[in-house]
Design brief:
Number of helices: 22
Mean pLDDT: 89
Shape: globular
Strand order of the largest sheet: 1-3-2
Strand content: under 5%
Largest sheet: 3 strands, mixed
Radius of gyration: 24 Å
Number of strands: 3
Order of helices and strands: HHHHHHHHHHHHHEEEHHHHHHHHH
Distance between the termini: 39 Å
Structural class: mainly alpha
Number of domains: 3
Low-confidence stretches: 513-518
Length: about 575
């Protein structure tokens, strides 16, 4: 009885750690990064304009579901703003004249909405990973620790910062994995139906996601070929193809193009420099010297290996925490400084070291590089030597292979030699998260000393790599106070700001009344009804994962299995 009580307390404590990790990371994301400055916002922000503003047009080739979900969250945040030239989604994301000290309430509200919508999808993915890890017989408290660490995994942070559908892939892929493996074991008709709706949603999100997840699922089916019949596969392909077709037709009707029509978009967005194919040398070349001396952007555009090693735990392309003029990049505290003697200034929290001559930003890049090297070495070790899931640990390779094929001109030219940004790790970030979770699952069940201590080191290093700690000054304090007024977690952020800021006068959750109007011109337009219906069905499926509904469905499933002769 005492042991049971102790387990319950540990479960509650670790769950609270997970909850705190989500809240803390969300606060920092809201405060220090504007998602209207995320990569290609000018291109994909047209979806928000289409769904929220009269006369909005889409100039892109991706599926609409993800963007419609984000539009719903955006509408909640901006419904009280008057639609005008100043308050227009079309005009957001312009970094040329951006002053973070005076960023508009409207821009912060849109940015926060994107981050909140992404957080919703991210939590859906976390729930799926919880069910998957539970199926793998990992105890609840260990699952909560794994998911807490995943919250701070750099690719996870990037998905939550960006207006792109990779986070939708993260939300759905764990559920597809969980339902598929569960089905091969239980042969439940309900699990079969759930899979039928999830896969078409993933396949209509984005062409690259379709290719990557398609290869992943084919490999998964091959692994479980002894547990699934040809008849089951044929029925699944037939029905899911029908659902995919109606979703795809609705998508093409909205965006007026197929997922593979992009040539005119290169002209519209002035990206004709991408009409190239990659030199095959980039696939195996590695610049060892530059990796150590220059682990930064532009030095490794001739090496996939170099880009991958720097970008997995870092920000090689300077799009996130290393992006100029963002609060995540600015006001970084130089907390280690050279001195003639070793000492610690507790009042200013500065460490003084003899013969110290390192730039902290260089040290951040080296740290992210070393973390990536360790990450991939451990993944190979557990995938090859230990009894871990090779598919999950090596799933990023699938993502890289798809990007390599794309860089060679299939299905179209899409490579810029000067940057090689076709190989951003962001494009297969949902695979990196699966790999990270499987690696942690194996690490956490492996006995080795200082395991708990290493968790704190990991959190500290991630905070350091992403630009913390910050230097207190009036400009930063004013900017944070101004941004916080329009964040979704304003009241929660206040406690952090009251503690960390010097200038506290502007800390408030009261919005500037002069920028809010009673006239409500923003509204939801052009609802993609089929996509919305299918996704709503998926959300209902998630509700059935709650214990009460699960028990009820198990009783129903026994009858259905007999009726459809599924053994």
């Amino acid at each position: 009885m005492k042991k049971l009580e102790s387990i319950k307390k540990i479960n509650i404590f670790t769950f609270l750690i997970l909850l705190f990790s989500i809240i803390l990371s969300n606060s920092f994301i809201n405060l220090y990064y504007l998602s209207t400055l995320s990569p290609d916002f000018n291109r994909y922000g047209t979806y928000l304009s289409y769904f929220l503003e009269p006369g909005g047009e889409i100039f892109s080739e991706q599926g609409v579901l993800y963007y419609f979900i984000i539009s719903l969250f955006t509408f909640i945040n901006i419904k009280d703003f008057n639609l005008s030239e100043e308050n227009s989604i079309k005009n957001l994301g312009n970094s040329e004249n951006l002053n973070l000290l005076y960023v508009s309430d409207f821009e912060v509200s849109v940015s926060t909405a994107i981050q909140t919508g992404n957080l919703f999808l991210f939590i859906v993915g976390l729930f799926g990973l919880f069910k998957f890890l539970k199926m793998k017989n990992l105890e609840n408290h260990k699952i909560y620790i794994v998911l807490s660490l995943l919250v701070f995994f750099p690719p996870s942070l990037q998905m939550r910062l960006t207006l792109k559908p990779e986070v939708l892939g993260f939300a759905l892929l764990p559920w597809a994995l969980y339902y598929f493996i569960s089905y091969t074991d239980k042969k439940s008709i309900f699990l079969f139906i759930k899979l039928l709706f999830i896969i078409p949603i993933i396949f209509t999100a984005k062409a690259s996601i379709t290719a990557m997840v398609g290869i992943f699922l084919l490999t998964l089916i091959y692994q479980y070929r002894d547990k699934i019949s040809f008849k089951e596969i044929a029925v699944f392909i037939l029905i899911s193809s029908f659902i995919f077709s109606i979703l795809y037709i609705e998508n093409t009707n909205v965006i007026n193009r197929s997922f593979f029509e992009r040539d005119d978009l290169k002209q519209i967005y002035n990206q004709t420099e991408y009409n190239n194919v990659a030199d095959p040398k980039i696939f195996y070349n590695i610049n060892f010297r530059d990796l150590i001396k220059h682990p930064e952007s532009h030095y490794h555009s001739d090496s996939i290996i170099g880009i991958t090693l720097i970008d997995t735990f870092g920000d090689y392309f300077n799009e996130y925490w290393d992006k100029d003029y963002t609060l995540s990049k600015k006001y970084r505290k130089n907390f280690i400084q050279p001195s003639e003697t070793y000492r610690f200034d507790s009042s200013n929290q500065i460490i003084y070291l003899k013969n110290w001559n390192f730039n902290l930003d260089y040290l951040r890049n080296i740290t992210s590089l070393l973390l990536s090297v360790l990450f991939f070495i451990l993944s190979i070790y557990f995938g090859v030597i230990k009894n871990a899931s090779k598919l999950l640990l090596f799933s990023p390779v699938i993502g890289i292979l798809v990007l390599i094929i794309n860089s060679l001109g299939f299905p179209e030219y899409n490579f810029y030699p000067d940057t090689a940004d076709t190989f951003k790790t962001f494009y297969y970030s949902f695979f990196l998260t699966l790999c990270f979770v499987e690696l942690l699952r194996n690490l956490i069940i492996t006995k080795f000393p200082f395991k708990k201590f290493l968790i704190f080191i990991y959190i500290f290093l991630i905070c350091f790599v992403t630009g913390f700690p910050k230097e207190n000054n009036t400009e930063l304090d004013y900017a944070l106070s101004n941004i916080n007024k329009n964040t979704s977690s304003c009241f929660l952020n206040q406690a952090y700001l009251e503690y960390s800021l010097i200038e506290r006068d502007g800390i408030s959750c009261t919005k500037n009344i002069n920028e809010i109007y009673q006239q409500k011109n923003f509204n939801i337009h052009h609802v993609p009804k089929i996509n919305t219906t299918i996704f709503t069905i998926f959300i209902i499926f998630l509700i059935t994962e709650i214990k009460f509904f699960n028990q009820y469905l198990k009783l129903k499933d026994i009858r259905l299995r007999k009726r459809f002769s599924i053994s």
